[in-house]
Amino acid sequence: MKVTAARKRKNDPEGVRSRILDATARLFQAQGYHATGMRRVMQVTGLSSGALHHHFATKDALALAVIKERVAPVVRETWVDPVRTAGSLGTTVQVVFSEIVRGIEQRKAVAGCPLNNLAMELSFSNPQLREPLRAIFQEWQTTLAARIGATHGGVPMDRAQRMEAASFVISVYSGAMNLAKTAQSALPLRAAARHLKEWLLEQGFSP
Amino acid sequence: MKVTAARKRKNDPEGVRSRILDATARLFQAQGYHATGMRRVMQVTGLSSGALHHHFATKDALALAVIKERVAPVVRETWVDPVRTAGSLGTTVQVVFSEIVRGIEQRKAVAGCPLNNLAMELSFSNPQLREPLRAIFQEWQTTLAARIGATHGGVPMDRAQRMEAASFVISVYSGAMNLAKTAQSALPLRAAARHLKEWLLEQGFSP
Fold it and tell me: How many residue pairs from chains A and B have C-beta atoms closer than 8 A?
C-alpha cells in the first residue's frame, strides 16, 4: 500500500491534469481559444505530446474541461454565490462590481470575463462548446431571477419577467466588461455599476 | 487614354481590394480573427498569395482595413447615424434593437456584433488593432452622449455624466448581444430593449 501511494504521488495524474487546466485557462484568458494550440500547452506545462494527449485526446476535450472546471467555478465564486447569499441584491451587485473594478485597477489591465471571452469566440462557430458556456449563463440568470423582488412597482411578476430582469442585469455587466476590455479601463464598469444599482432600486427589484 | 482605362477596368485593383475586404469581414464574423488565415482568404477569393499580399502585406494590415472600412461603417449605419438623426432617443433605440432582432429571426442564427466580436478577441492581445476598435466605440458613445437629455431628474448633467449614461446604453446592447449569441436566440435583446427604453424614459434621458 505504501509503495502504491508513493508511486501515485510521484505519477500524480490528478496534479498533472490540474496543471494542464490551469495553464490552458490562463492561455485562453490571455490570447483566446483559437490562438492557443496544443503545442503551446505542451510548452508551458513542459509535458510531452503523449502525456498531454493521455489526459485530453483533443483540444475540444481540453476546452470542455477548462469551461466546466475553471470557468464555471470562477463565475460561481464571483457572481452566483454572492447573489445566492445576498442580503440586498442591489448592494451585492455593487460589491461584485467593486471587487472586479479593484482587481482591474490592481493589474492595470483588462483581460475580460473568462466566460464572456470564450462565449464570444465560440458560440457561433462551435455548438458543442457553446452548450456548456450557455449553461453557465443559465445558472447565473436563474440565481439572479430567484433573488429579484417578486413585484415590479407593486405588480406581481411571473418567472418569465424575473428571468428577463435577470437577463438585463447580466447584459449590463457583460457589455460593460466588453467596453472595459476595449478601453483597457475600469470606467465602463463603474458607470454600469452606478446605473444598475439605481435601476434595481427604482424598479423595486431590490431593497 | 482609352486603353489605359480599359486596362484599369480589367485589372480593377479597387474591385479586388474590396472583394478581399468583404470576404475577410465575412470570415471574421463567422469564425473570428485567429481562426482565419491568409490561406483561407486566398481560397475564398481565388487569389494567389502574391495578389493578396500585393494589397495587404500582413494579416494585421488586412484586419485594420476590415475594421476601418467594413466594421466601422456597419456600426455607423446600424447605430450612430440613426441616433444622430433621431427624433426621440428612446424610440430610436427601440427601433435599432427591433431591426437587429428582425435580422436574427430571419437568419435563425446569431453571429454577433462584428465590433464586439473583434474587440473581445483582440483588445487584450493586440494593442494595435484595439485602438481602431476603441475609436468606433468612442464615436458611438460620443454620438449617444450628444443626444441624451441635458438634465437628469431636473438636475443639469455635465458631459462626463452624459458620457457615462451613453456608456451604459452601449453596455446593455453589447452584453445583450453576448447573451443572444451564446443562447442563439434574440430573447436577451428583446429583454434589453424593453428595459432600456423604460430606463431612458424614467431617467428623463429621452422624451
Answer: 159
